[in-house]
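Sample pair:
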Amino acid sequence: MSIRLTRRAALLLLAGAPLAPLPAPAADEKKTAAPSTKADDKGWKPLFDGQTLAGWKRTEFAGGGEVRVEKSFRDGPPAIVVTAGATLSGFNWTKDAPKTNYEISLEALKIEGSDFMCGLTFPVGNSHATLILGGWGGPIAGISSIDNSDASENPTTKYLSFKKDRWYQVRLRVTPEKLEAWLDAEKIIDQEITGRKISLRPGSISMSTPIGISTFQTSAAYRAIKLRTLKG
């Protein structure tokens, strides 16, 4: 086997000078390590490993869009991307989930579309409900359903602006007495549920249980999905 030397290296060898070690290859700054699957010091446990849909599956909504993992979404951290479908599109958790005394947190970004960018379905005791962000043409946030009234017509109804290409921090808290939700630093839901009927809106959203994230005719991305249990 022959070894080819550069002219400079050959001259240095002839002169008896030592060759300087080659520099180590620079690290790729765009690569982001996958999040740990262990709970942090505040009890938050990641539900997205940053690499795959492990623990999740694409929800089989009729006409639903694609669900994929992008390991560097827009040159940033990993994200799960949902493309717009005919109506609902999304993905749901395939493992056990707490029924009460817990919080879910995630970041959501609307890519394109005119309806909700995030429909977060979650357990409430022996039932389920959905936190809607940007429904009914874009401005409505609220819980579907309370006493058979959906997010557009119950006490949780809010009118908010959801801009494209902007990450929103979403946090939901479920206890036996209350449903609470925050959008960034603003508390948008503070609903007593004692004596109330909590249920899903009739239709295929029931496929999102026990925990699911969906859109309606809208493309969106999600990252930093995590959950923690609360002391009763």
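Residues 1-6, 8-15, 17-33 have pLDDT under 50 and may be disordered.
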